[in-house]
């Protein structure tokens, strides 16, 4: 059974992070259906980074080293993907 919890700002941040992180898969699915093939839209990376950042902040607040270690590398990976996409877009222009 779930214990009651305090609805503080970090619980809200944690829920928002989880929602954003989940939305990336819905966005990817919709984009792929529209294209008729599997693709990863730019918004996937934005939601990945935003969700991961919020979940990281929540993990720090909870002082959960497993959760912190699980989210920390994602911040670099998602940021790097966004940077590479923007860099390659500028080259094509």
Tags for this model:
93 residues; mainly alpha; 3 helices; 82% helix; 0% strand; lipid-A-disaccharide synthase activity; UCP028440_lipidA_biosyn; transmembrane helix
Low-confidence stretches: none
Which descriptor suits the 3D outline?
A: globular
Approximate helicity band = over 70%
| Element pattern in H and E | HHH
Q: Count of helices?
A: 3
How far the N terminus sits from the C terminus, by CA atoms, comes to 55 Å
Mean pLDDT: 90
- Radius of gyration, Cα only, in angstroms? 16 Å
SS class: mainly alpha
Beta percentage is under 5%
Multimer state: single chain
Number of strands: 0
* Main beta sheet strand tally, sense and closure: none
How are the SSEs ordered, and which strands pair?
Blueprint: H1 9-35, H2 42-62, H3 65-92
Keywords: Membrane, Transmembrane, Transmembrane helix
Domain Lipid A biosynthesis N-terminal: 13-84
Transmembrane segments: 6-27, 39-60
